[in-house]
Amino acid sequence: MAGLDVAAAEDFDEEHRACFRQDTEKGKAGALPPPPPIYMPDMEDVWLYPRPPALEPVAKPLRIVFGGHVIAETSAAWRVLETTHPPVYYLPPDAFTGCTIEPASGSSFCEWKGVARYWSLRAGAAFAPRCAWSYPTPVPAYAALRDHLAVYCQAMDQCFVGDEQATPQPGGFYGGWVTSDLKGPFKGVPGSNGW
Question: Does the reported pTM lie above 0.85?
Fold first, then answer.
């Protein structure tokens, strides 16, 4: 993501402070004030990611380890960048060479991308139920994600962005991968329900 324009950051900060004031006036308890955007040239501030989310190719290779083995590797992934969330990484199906991908029950709807279906991953004796999702028929703006899989970091042994091991997005519900070049706080922490 390109560097932040300082003037844009100041406008963004005031806009989010206004939203917080409105939430407080409406009596929404537990809402945290948005952090002020701070220009940090080597960091991405997730509060400056757009809505609707941006879709961009991933510049670094991705690797997933599960059951003690590398189950997926690619340099052809996409990432979705949505306000307050760490990036969600989508890997092409041919990246998954060290496991089997099995259909899982259920589906969900994303207001931006469309209907998601869920998948389980099996690598030898290791089994992670409903740990991945994809968009078989995404809306046109996200057509590049068709049949790519996103994987919950917490369900795997390790997930890497380049050489850095990612950690799961807080809260267990969302599927972002957190790396050291991201500035939060991230949706999923206590008190972030209304973000």
Answer: no
